[in-house]
């Protein structure tokens, strides 16, 4: 943004130099005042283009920051969902003794690992689905009775 704004004095100086150079040309039928007015108009146009460029850069930066903020919020939300699903699974009498991995991406929860029986496997889906922010549960738990 500052880079675009620093071009303004340079453009003005170039326009004035062009105007002065134009003053010395014999084939230009305009008066020195008309040539200077033209140079000033050119500087104004360049300044407006620079202002538009700077505004575009600001808008682009704002959109990038907004996207980064949205991504950070989604990651935080996914971490929170994962923690809440893990807490719900640990609170269940049959599921607390099993190793269940919970992965969350954009509200989509995937459960992997083992469940002691089919009812517990289904219960894991129910518990995960009840957590606020969960959009879908992909239950990949394998029913495997505990040995021992």
Salient structural properties:
about 150 residues; Histidine-containing Protein, Chain: A; 2 domains; 3-stranded mixed sheet
Describe this structure in words.
The protein is an alpha+beta fold and 148 residues long. The protein has 2 domains: 70 residues; 66 residues, Histidine-containing Protein, Chain: A. α1 runs antiparallel to α2. It contains 3 helices and 3 strands, in the order ααββαβ. The mean pLDDT is 80.
Silhouette: rod-shaped
Please list the strands of the largest sheet in the order they lie side by side: 1-2-3
Estimate the helix proportion, in percent: 55-70%
**Compute the gyration radius: what is it?**
33 Å
Mean pLDDT: 80
Q: What is the H-and-E element order? A: HHEEHE
Number of strands: 3
β-sheet strand percentage? 5-15%
Largest sheet: 3 strands, mixed
How many angstroms does the end-to-end distance come to? 68 Å
| Uncertain segments | none
**What structural class results from the helix and strand content?**
alpha+beta
Number of helices: 3
Number of domains: 2
